[in-house]
Write the structure tokens for this entry.
Amino acid sequence: MNLTQLSLPEQAIFVLAALVLLVSFILLSQTRLTAAIHAFAWQGALVAVVAALVGWVGADAHLYLSAGLTLALKALLIPWMLHRLVRRLDMDAEREALVHPALVALTGTLLVVFAYWLVLPLERLAVTDTRNLLAISLATVLMGFWMLVVRAQAVAQVLGFMSIENGLFLGAVAATRGMPLVVELGVAFDVLVAMILFGVFFFQIRESIDSLDTDRLDRLAETEEEA
Amino acid sequence: MTWLWLCVFTPALGGLALALVRSLRWAGWINLGVSTLSFSAALALAVQVAADGGFTRGGFVVDAFNVYLVVLTSFVALTTGIFSRPYMAHLCHEGRLTRRRMRLYHAMYQGFMFTMLLALTTDNLGILWIAVEGATLSTVLLVSLYRTPGAVEAAWKYFILCGVGIAMALFGTLLVYFAAQRVIPDPEAGLSWTHLHALAHQLQPGVMGVAFVFLLVGYGTKVGLVPLHNWLPDAHSEGPTPVSAVLSGLLLNVALYAVVRLKMLTDASLAGAGGAQLTGHLMMGFGLASFLVAGLFLHRQRDIKRLFSYSSIEHMGLMTFAFGIGGPLATFGALLHMLVHSLTKSAIFVTVGHAAHIAGTQSLARIRGLIHTQPGVGWGLLLGVAAIAGFPPFGLFTSEFLLLSATMDTWPWLAPTLLMGLAVAFAGLFRQIHPVVYGHAPEGQRAVTANMIPVGLHLLLVLVLGLYIPALLTQWLDQATRLIAGTGVL
């Protein structure tokens, strides 16, 4: 693929998509909650702009709608809800100790390589730009998974969960110019309901273990032996 | 079509209405009424399909494969509703649940039924995903209903793990849509299962292969396949009993249904490229691993509900394995097994709810002598376990026998493994349940008011299915087998 042969908006799409992935790395290692929520909001905004640009390049009006929806939901509403929750739970200043930060980030880069390898079978379809974006979106999804694994703080886990959604939406935009509208609305609805439920759970978890460190949720381990 | 709408959307409206009903008495009865209405509509739909065959209209698809699952789902919803009305009211009087949570319970119960019926009948793969995710969302708060630390932990685990799994499935769905765009120009029809199935042989095999891996891992998390099963025993054991019954009896089936529908697409696409065995082998591997691992885990359980959760994993593994083998006999057996396992497992969970109520604990070591204290519950549990372990007169014997014969036909060297797995699971169940039923009842253990009608009804149906399968059902299952495996068994 020759980058210089692409039009300006197409190049912008690549740059922005790369930035989405960069934000994933920031999310992975940002231990201050407020800053992490800000980073997540930026990721949502970037994905929305990518969607709008893809819509503009392909003259696809329905993508503007999805972009608007994503901007409203992922860049504004969900970060706002998270901020409010964090303030109500008095965790503004809370920092999480990350074990082996270098190793975590290094594994992140391996996941990116893995994502590129995984979409190799799609190469034969001869749509190189799609392949690149698809790999980035899959990498964002995998980074979200990785974040769920390494971060024990419940709010950080929710950010991981939501950034997986961002990656999936980016993939939908990249590969297929978005899903049918009914499906996109349904997925957005599910995400919103999930966010509300997460809010409820923060309080339930706090009530039960007096912290939001999910590593302390360990009563149901299979190794538990009662004589 | 009217019947379909009535069957699927009654629970949705009922759930909304129940969120507003304050009276506990009324809520229980309305819940029951909604389920009855939905079940009657499902029966009418089944009669219609039996007479005129299936149809695809208005974004819904009804064929032999899903119509029997719709009837099954609404039937178990009804019987569990019958059980849950006095049971939940009792919990509320005991003070374990507040009025607000009871409202949440009733509203979410119907909401859950709606998402499952929608997932079963929708023609759109995207909506299938939304509905399966919706089923998770509507049940997480039910799992944590007691607000004990264990319940909250189970619900969080359930939420995160299933959320992650289902994200995989969405990526898979996306890839299917990607492949479809090359074949179906109309973007709105690109996720329609009927359209895709008609043109499946033209779909890019490379893309579909990758897509199926994501879809299997994604929906497989909800089926409870090892090693993605971690959430299942927790979620099924910490929630209230009616929730365990519908989760184990119904939700797992719906997830497996999704996997099989997508396998049909992928198989047709891969057949041209000579890789038709990929989906089957993957499913056989995951299925057999789940079946064997869960069977072993049965031996070390300390909690009666966890015991039966692992038994669910074991049976889901067996079904996945059978769908993986794929021939007509194995498919027929797996379809029958879905039916009888649901009926038996929900009956067992209802009985276990009563047993835990009698003993005041879920710990296997402290529930003793049920048959002396309350013969109805003791016998219910004993017969239920006999049925789930695959004893001859019951329906599970028939289906497991079919699966075993199918394995001997196609993969003879796997048959001993299968037999051994069945024996291990059987031993695990009986070793744990024997003292629970026959042991010495502790002093002061007293009978409780138990409603064993749903249990009796379910076990009777399983018994009947073991002795004689009605011609109508055989015909349906055979049609579904034709749809999935290409040829029927009749």
Chain A is about 75% helix and 0% strand. Chain A touches chain B through 50 residues (CB under 8 Å). Residues 3-213 of chain A form one domain.
